[in-house]
Amino acid sequence: MIIVSIIGLLLSIFGEGNLMQCFIKPNNKDSDDKTVVDCSSQNLEKIPLFLVGLNVKILDLHNNVIKMVPASILSNISSNMEFLDLSHNQIEKLDKDSFFGLVKLKILKLGHNKLCLHSDYPEGLFKDLGALQTLYTLGNKCTSQHKFYPDMHFLSY
């Protein structure tokens, strides 16, 4: 945890943004060193770049002020991610490659943002999410996901 705080301090000095405190711990249930990262409620404006390469399995970014999810940043953090919480942010728009490469993602929480399923989810946004089981979108501007993605009927919303 000390290393993460030092990295956060250096990144805040050299352009990563405000000092952030993310709690990073190995997931002892797995033998392949996948990591659990909790960056919730840190007033983050963007996804922290120092997470790239940490082999994150669970990433919690809820209750921040993130406005966008840049293309491929999440797959650069970890293609092994299974849980991603981006709820309670200020996300207004998503890039068609925001979730590119997250082939193991099972749970995606996008609720309580400023998204509208009809206009803010570009075609192909969920194309790599073949393992996805739960898509949480409640509390956005538009919530009629069943009409917009009828082929995703197997998900729990």
Stated plainly, the CATH topology is called Leucine-rich repeat, LRR (right-handed beta-alpha superhelix)
Please give the count of helices.
4
Summarize the amount of helix as a percent range.
Answer: 10-25%
**Count of discrete domains:** 1
* Model regions low in confidence, pLDDT < 50 over at least 5 residues: 1-19
CATH architecture: Alpha-Beta Horseshoe
- Please give the alpha-carbon distance between the first and last residues: 34 Å
Strand content: 15-25%
Mean pLDDT: 80
Shape verdict: globular
Taking all Cα atoms into account, the compactness measure Rg is: 15 Å
The SSE string, one letter per element, is HEEEEHEEEHEH
CATH superfamily: Ribonuclease Inhibitor
Q: Identify the strand order in the major beta sheet.
A: 1-2-3-5-7-8
Number of beta-strand segments: 8
Q: What is the SS-derived class?
A: alpha/beta
CATH hierarchy class name? Alpha Beta
Sheet bearing the most strands, described?
Answer: 6 strands, mixed
